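Could you help me review a protein record that somebody else here produced? What it holds is a sequence and that sequence's fold in token form. I have pasted the whole thing underneath without changing anything:
=====
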Amino acid sequence: MGSVFVRLLQMTVLPYVLFSLVSSVGKLSPSTVRGLLKAGSGLVVGSWLLALGFVALAPLAFPPWQSASFFSDALVRENRALDLLALYLPSNPFHALANNIVPAVVVFSLAVGAALIGVPNKTRVIEVLDVATAALTRVTTSVSRFMPLAIFAVTASAAGTMSVDEISRLQVYFALYLFASIALTFAVLPAALAIWTPLRYGTVFRVCGDALVTGFTTGNLLITLPMMIEGCKEILRQEGLESEEANAAIDVLIPVTLNAPLMGKLLTLIFVPFAAWFVGTPLEPEQFLGFLSSGLVTYFGSVNAAMPFLLDTYHIPADMFELFLVTGVVSARFSTLLTSLNMIVIGLLGALILSGAIRINRRSLIALAGIAAVAVAVVLGGAKALFTKTFTANYEKAEAVRGMTLRGRLVPWQVEPLSAEDALPPARRSFGVQEIRERGRLTVGFQRDNLPYAFLNSSGTLVGLDVELAHRLATELGVSLTFVPMELGQFGDALEVGRIDVALAGLPMTTLASAELGLTHSYLDATLGLVVRDHDRQDFKTMVDLVQMDGVRIAVVKDHFLKRRVESLLPRARVEAIASPREFFEDSSRQFDALLFTAEAGAAWTLLYPEYTVVVPQPVTARMPIVMAVAPENNELRVFINEWIDLARALGVVQRAYDHWVLGQDAQPEQPRWSVLRNVLGWGEGMDRNYQQGSGVTSE
């Protein structure tokens, strides 16, 4: 229901932006444009700077918390520089409309509207545009009738699927937005009037109170427009500042600023850095200039079109937009209140400037800047203090990893450690497919502590992607499984003497490995990356920076086939072998700067050690196939496994295992949604038991 409402709401947004902007700008006369630019442009820009300043500084109040996530394709997606020309100057406006490039649509609309100003006989065109705008408004109004039901559906969905920890984090955005909007509404904007005009602090709230209350109650700016215009004229009349020129300026300035992104609207941009922080990938400082500029331009249109665009631009999950709609239930009221007062202040100041009644000098600007700085400090400091006392975020990802279990049909299996006899050099002997079937057992060598491929969960059971695939392979052969733990360097000998039939250890395909082992077709493709401490990730962002770093200390798992690769790529680095990835993560002396690993495996380890993160230096170049290994001369088994891998990939068996163990889908046991019937009234408990029983082992 929520998704249907979102799509219906977005359906008319870009056409509405196009038609309404062209019509609004095209109606203006050249003299009106000059007057507006003279009186209103500085005031509007000042409003932008104040609001965007709050947005830029908001992350300073975000409370620190440890976060990590399962591997995501966004981690290895190449970060392309923001193409400002393509973003703002559409070579093909139809492409911009079709691909939701909101800034380009806004610029195109403003350009066409400006061109219409000097066109004779433009009335008919503008009438057609107004009719189209009215029709789109009717569609939006019809959809909005279902808003209470839709907001309930979206909110219920979010509440039913969000954890207590996620709801706790959501309060950060609410608090920051409310604090900032209240400070601007009741401190900064009234101060601007008090500094530059003879108006007293309470005058605007007393005369225009009905408009402000109506806007706050309904969340609708349009219906308060006549009330704001008449209220501004009444203030000038009471203060003896009324003039024909001032009244005319109010008649133009307030309606024109209705479509401009003012303070209340711009403050919702806080949601973008908040969403990035929420999912554990905060925006970097150098990204903020592009973010604020693109956010400002996109907000000339609809927030419902701009927000998905911004979330996608900064690789933030698209489902965060639904969370944004949920927050709008509260924030929209304060946004309308702040924007209404912002329009009133712009109307009053612009009218008085245009009529020559007041002048804005440097001294008054400095005074207002000081008040704004104090307001920002109070808001951010107060929010930080509040979050320090009230914010608690329990890190649960480590428990989620340790609680993962094998899925699907499992064959009988056991773990059989290497014995003393295994160290003796018996005659070479490897087993073909028929011999394995006659023996009734497939023996698999695996590497201990090898997330996400093979590891022990919290109950001491051997689990992981390779373990699950081994069960699928054994099912195909019709045999049981024996897992033998060993070190990476022992695989070659163990395969040749027949101690194990196949090695599964997340092995990357390299020329060195192919010379020692019989490698199969790849069943996964991994990306080479580095695991570093969170605060060091900027130092490892690009290959250029990495190659030029002298003496950087990089750890590589002992006997790993990637050691030579990193030595050739980074000749200035000091590469040292360690026995296990855990040695790197638990190194209190910090003798290593980074761990060379595949990004997929590194992301799994950071779930256990959230103070670390995975970095894939740009540009992404090192993609590596992950393979199984058999004895070099055992072609019969290798051919069988190759055919099985090809079939398993085609049928989605490998993909489902990858989604679960690498991407973390269904990593935690699925629980029924929260509901009033179940969680409040206690009905349906028997259904819960059936649900939980039915979510266990299923057949492949």
Residues 685-700 have pLDDT under 50 and may be disordered. The first helix runs from residue 2 to 11. The first strand starts at residue 413 and ends at 415.
